[in-house]
Amino acid sequence: MHLSHRRMAIFSVTGCTAWVLSVASLLLHESVLAQVPESGGGQSSEVTMGTLPLIPSASAIGTPGATTPNSSGGPNQSNRWFEPRITIQHTVTSNARLNSAGHSDHVTEVMPGFSLMRDTARVKGFVDYTLRASHYARGTDSDKIWHSLNARGTVEAVEDRLYVDMDGTIGLQAVSAFGPIGNSAANSNMAETSNFRISPYLKGDLSGGINYEARYGIREIRSDAAINSDATVHDWLLQLGRKPVGQAFGWILDATQQNINYSNSRNIESTAFRGRLIYLATLQLRLIGIAGFESTNQRLPTKESHDIVGLGFDWRPSDKSKLFVERQSRYFGSAYNVNLEHRLARAVWRYTDRKDVTVGTAAQSGSTGSLFDLLDGYYTQIEPSPIRRIQLVQAELARMGLPADMQVFPDFLSSSSKLQRQQQLSLALLGRRSTLTFALSRSDARQMDGALRLGDDFQNNQRIRQRGWNIMFAHRLSPNSTINAAFGDARSIGSTLGWEARTRTLLIGWNTRIAPRTSLGLQLRRVLSDGNMSQYDESAVMGLITHRF
Fold first, then answer.
1. What rounded mean pLDDT belongs to the chain?
2. Under 8 Å between Cβ of 9 and 113
3. How far apart are CA 393 and CA 381, in angstroms?
4. Nearest to 252 by CA among 202, 288, 302, 220
5. N or C: which end of the chain has fewer CB within 10 A?
6. What is the C-alpha to C-alpha distance for residues 235 and 13, in angstroms, rounded to an integer?
7. Multiple choice CATH, 3-548, 2.30.30, 2.60.40, 2.40.170, 1.20.1530
8. What angle do CA 204, 195, 305 make, to 5 degrees?
9. How does pLDDT run across 113-155, given as a tens digit for each residue?
10. What is the pTM (predicted TM-score) of this model?
């Protein structure tokens, strides 16, 4: 939600609870975080205050057991890590509102924030939060305050029995696929969207090698876009299964129930029962057969039932390569999930292809960002812990001056469920001093109930296709300085004649560390948008300074 600086930010009750519990869980049993002197080079089991996490040098990558000191000269990663920071950013832009009028302005932003991580036997999680306050010197927009949050955690409340998963995100998301693209408060096409979830669950083992899981989850999705629906999602899961350990066959039985309550649309109820038979063909290959049935009112106000039939396999020929494929016959047609990943000594390839029904309000909220996800897959060979790996990837991206949350094209808000197919092919090459990434994406979406008229893009289009690509390059000039560049092209095409937009973006940046905990950056930006629905251009120069405490 964009907020005037005179007003207070109001979060949903569940959202606030999830965020507070995330922070509290990470600090469980630790009321005081011990400080560690920067000058020391030793090891410590306590938290490192304000010290960047360990970043492997190029020579250490792919070398088992190799370690290097971090950029601040402090100790290695610990199980508890907290780092506050503040960034001051000033932008001179030729088009603050990103429209055809082209009003220039000077925008100053103050962005305090912090990162928090814990990885222990009972608590695993992280929180990264930034508050952004912006001031427009020439009054192209009122002063704004908005938030950026990415949090995720798991608490083992009762040993080996009761767990609680929590996650939350807050960020700007495009209202329309055909409007201006840019994370600026003055951009009328961007809305602040929050997505919070709490999910307690029981899991354990029964006799005969059978395991069970019983889970409930509540997710609240809110947006400050007036024309779009908010949503509350309730999920129930009951699952029994036996893994194919020491035998050729395994099985999984699950029952699921989902209720989606939209603020501006009709409520959705879905129930499904599935059985999976798993055959261990080899130690590297598992074959999967799926059968079941489901009942839902996604497409019509009254419920319809449909059988579920599917096949799949999970092939992992080595610890560097994996391929998962699953296809099911569902009430809307074919649903599938393909995930291919291959890692080399200094490269990672990834291809994903997914078609399924999504809660339209925030379809991409579960993703940290395409670049982040790609590097996360690469660093799996260095750091197996997902929580520690988040810390590692964030530090590497900051060191190279690359944006963790850059998408080829941002997803857009919709007020009801949509059937969406998303494909992405990505590549990252990591050299001794340079990093090159490439991503190619395509999306095809349509509203599940075509009779609804809710004021979003689907009111005028039965189908919306998006495609695009981007390429990013970063080069380390010295131990303290890097240069980077990015170029991308994104298109959105509606089924109605004339609904089309294309945006091309060029970024060139330079980053340097001017003190052990202070960095300085400069960025040049050029944006050109054409098409029938959105025509504008922008040139901007941005300078920023960040201090980590």
1. 80
2. no
3. 13
4. 288
5. C
6. 18
7. 2.40.170
8. 65
9. 998 888 888 898 889 899 999 999 988 888 888 898 989 899 9
10. 0.79
